[in-house]
Design brief:
The complex is a heterotrimer of chains A (about 250), B (about 230) and C (about 230). Chain A has about 250 residues and is α/β, with parallel strands linked by helices. Chain A is built from 8 helices and 10 strands. In chain A, the strands form 2 sheets. A 6-stranded mixed sheet of chain A has the order 6-7-8-3-9-10, sandwiched between helices. Chain A is globular. Chain A starts with a strand and ends with a helix. Chain B contains 8 helices and no strands. Chain C is mainly alpha-helical. Chain C has one domain. In chain C, about 75% of the residues lie in helices and about 0% in strands. In chain C, helix 2 crosses helix 6. The longest helix of chain C is centred in the C-terminal third of the chain and has 43 residues. The chains are: A alpha/beta (about 250), B mainly alpha (about 230), C mainly alpha (about 230). Chains in contact: A-B, A-C, B-C. The interface between B and C is medium-sized, with 29 and 30 residues.
Chain lengths: ~250, ~230, ~230
């Protein structure tokens, strides 16, 4: 198996605060890695760095054989990103949004691909409506369509369930499992293990700016994983409380 | 292998996107227009624009109107990019950041020119005095280009700040004064009927400012969007 | 905490002594201007303060370029320090100008190109400060203020140029060719010129001294931030 994402000795600071401290991380082709961790652990920062939106202070990053930030344009072509915001224009229709992004990605004859995507995400009936009029769940589905429009090798998902109700979340999971993540290398962040437990093949726990442990589904049964994650979280809470207490 | 989408295709895509969105919502141009009309009316009452005073202040009134309305347009145009995280969407695409800058600037320029194209005849009708001339149109083209060039840059900074609602005019007005002065002076010349060739110096000056402001903005735009 | 470096102590003393010397020169060495009298004395520090203001903003723009290339926060500290000092000196420049203008031009304020430009310049850097205060993420704040320091510094001379070509200035041009319309112009005697040059030198030393102190202050506040974070961890 070949390595698709490789991060070595990554350091990211915001002002004086070190958010990621000497982080190492690698993902093999076809893996689905869930990055778990409490809020503020640096999950979004890590994903923003992977997606070339943010530059590290130190460390090397390669994605699909290209390094960041020097070969950002090549990396961007290989990446699809779904964040907790849909990255869509409210005043454009679904079709126009996809058309716009297809042009930005330099796709030559996007019409067929756009039609295909709209069918996949189940929005072809409403393709002429403005995104503003869509529900949050529909916007997020189209966001997934936007992310895989240019058929990227790697899919990065940053808490895609944020702001969705139960039904919409389930629908999103279905879409992710059956369409978006098939044949792709996936990295997804979440603070909720239950949400990603059935999808991911590996779980990395990120706390205090480092990957503390990396667990494959084959190593540990799911309930064991849940218990372990809970214990990690409660340990952090306990630490925080003693600190606040003093 | 070419990884980047061609520069001009990307610019075209951004302009197309802004124009389509505006055609749909009409928020930006209609907002700027209503605001412009209000400014003209406010000027009318606060300056008592009688025919004699009007001759000397028309250029000023028009430019103040354009510039005030412009800040509304610029703020709105960049706020749209920030709202649903679209700026990130643009940055994630394999395109030059400066293509995004030029796309947004040209779209903003078009919106300002649309507003000017409506304001000028309306002003002429309101005061029963034709202000439109080739010279004035030329000055508005040049003046608004420089304004939009620096305005788009500063608006992309302002929308990323906590104080985004008040920041743009404070940042923009003090640095855009040279363009305002040159535009007002040149417009005034054309309005009082000075021959075109006597005002060419002002036109050259405006063109020079446009080149300076556009190239500075072009060079530093990366730093405004790249983290 | 590091103690004050030896060279800074020496520079402080040089600054104080030379400033006292400059003041003495202005009042006792330079001759009294025969038409304007004592109020002309303000001229020496007026010009010097204006010079330091310009110098500061130029350094801020250069530091801005350096920051955008190197992305090193020490350049942001240099730029921010320079802007703060520049604002103070430009204000001194405008106020001393007003003190002089009241008896000579018969008005505290005229819409003269130099006055207007100096004041617009002051507004540009007030905007710079407001921009900084509006951004919480330090790295973004550094980038944006670098950009604005560059844009502002390019705009100021253009403003001056624009106002200058259509308005005849009444501001005296003491150095270089004078303007026939200027009010309050005078010919400098050698003693006056020496006093002026010395004042400019002293203000430049004062600028270096203040920059040094301000940057040290910035470094200390950075250290405090770091220590605070270490306590939290």
């Amino acid at each position: 198996m070949s390595t698709v994402i490789e991060i070595k000795n990554l350091i990211k600071r915001f002002g004086h605060k070190q958010v990621l401290k000497n982080l190492n991380f690698s993902v093999n082709q076809g893996e689905f890695v869930a990055i778990l961790g409490p809020n503020g652990a640096g999950k979004t920062t890590l994903l923003r760095i992977l997606s070339s939106l943010s530059k590290p202070n130190f460390g090397s990053i390669t994605i699909g054989g290209y390094s960041l930030p020097d070969q950002a344009a090549a990396v961007r072509l290989k990446l699809g990103i779904v964040s907790h915001q849909p990255l869509l224009y409210g005043d454009l229709s679904a079709e126009e949004n996809l058309l716009f992004y297809s042009r930005l990605y330099g796709m030559d004859h996007p019409q067929n691909r756009i039609y295909e995507i709209l069918q996949l995400v189940g929005l072809e009936k409403r393709k002429k409506d403005m995104i503003r009029t869509y529900s949050r769940g529909m916007q997020q589905r189209l966001a997934i369509g936007r992310a895989i429009l240019h058929d990227p090798e790697v899919l990065l998902l940053d808490e895609p369930h944020t702001g969705l109700d139960q039904d919409a979340s389930n629908m999103l999971d279905q879409l992710l499992e059956q369409v978006a993540t098939r044949g792709r290398t996936v990295v997804m962040t979440s603070h909720d293990l239950g949400r990603v437990a059935n999808m991911a093949s590996r779980f990395d726990i990120l706390t205090k700016g480092k990957i503390q442990s990396s667990i494959s589904v084959n190593d540990l049964p799911l309930h064991g994983l849940l218990e372990y994650y809970q214990s990690v979280l409660s340990l952090i809470d306990a630490n925080a409380e003693t600190k606040n207490g003093t | 292998m070419e990884h980047k989408t061609s520069f001009f295709k990307a610019i075209k895509a951004v302009i197309w996107k802004d124009l389509i969105a505006e055609l749909r919502s009409k928020e930006l141009v209609s907002g700027m227009l209503v605001f412009s009309l209000l400014v003209i009316f406010i000027f009318n009452f606060s300056l008592e624009l009688s025919p004699s005073t009007r001759a000397s202040v028309t250029a000023g009134v028009l430019w103040v109107t354009i510039i005030f309305a412009g800040t509304i347009g610029l703020n709105r145009s960049m706020a749209v990019e920030k709202d649903r995280g679209c700026l990130d969407g643009l940055l994630l695409a394999p395109v030059d950041r400066t293509a995004i800058y030029f796309g947004k600037s040209i779209a903003n320029w078009i919106f300002m020119l649309i507003v000017a194209a409506i304001i000028l005849p309306v002003y002429s009708i309101l005061y029963n005095h034709n202000v439109i001339s080739i010279g004035l149109v030329f000055v508005i083209l040049l003046g608004s280009e420089g304004y939009v060039a620096i305005g788009t840059l500063l608006a992309s900074m302002a929308v990323q700040a906590r104080t985004r609602d008040i920041l743009l005019p404070i940042l923009l007005f003090p640095v855009v004064i040279p363009i305002l002065i040159a535009s007002v002076k040149a417009s005034n010349g054309f309005l009082i009927g000075v021959a075109f060739n006597e005002l060419t110096n002002w036109i050259y000056l405006l063109a020079a400012y446009d080149v300076i402001f556009t190239s500075v903005a072009f060079m530093v735009f990366d730093a405004v969007v790249e983290e | 905490m590091k103690s004050k470096p030896k060279w800074l102590k020496i520079l402080d003393i040089i600054t104080i002594i030379s400033f006292a010397l400059a003041t003495l020169m202005v009042f006792f060495y330079a001759p009294l201007e025969r038409v304007m009298g004592a109020v002309q004395k303000v001229f020496y520090f007026h010009v010097s303060a204006g010079w330091v203001g310009m110098l500061s903003f130029m350094i801020a723009a250069i530091a801005g370029i350096a920051y955008l290339i190197k992305k090193d926060s020490k350049w942001d500290l240099v730029g921010y320090s320079a802007v703060e000092i520049g604002i103070a000196f430009t204000m001194i420049n405008v106020i001393t100008g007003s003190i002089w203008a009241r008896p000579i031009w018969n008005s505290w304020w005229t819409w003269d190109p130099r006055l207007t430009t100096a004041t617009i310049m002051e507004l540009v850097y007030f905007a710079y400060i407001m921009l900084r205060q509006g951004i919480d993420d330090p790295e973004r704040r550094n980038r944006f203020s670098a950009v604005y320091a560059i844009v502002g510094f390019i705009s100021v001379p253009l403003t001056f140029f624009s106002i200058r070509i259509f308005d005849r200035t009444i501001h005296p041009v003491v150095i270089g060719s004078g303007d026939a319309n200027a009010i309050g112009s005078f010919d400098m005697t050698p003693l006056m010129l020496q006093t002026l040059l010395f004042s400019i030198l002293v203000f430049s030393i004062l600028f270096v001294d203040l920059m040094w102190h301000r940057i040290r202050l910035g470094q200390y506040s950075n250290e405090i931030e770091e220590l605070k974070l270490r306590i939290q961890d």
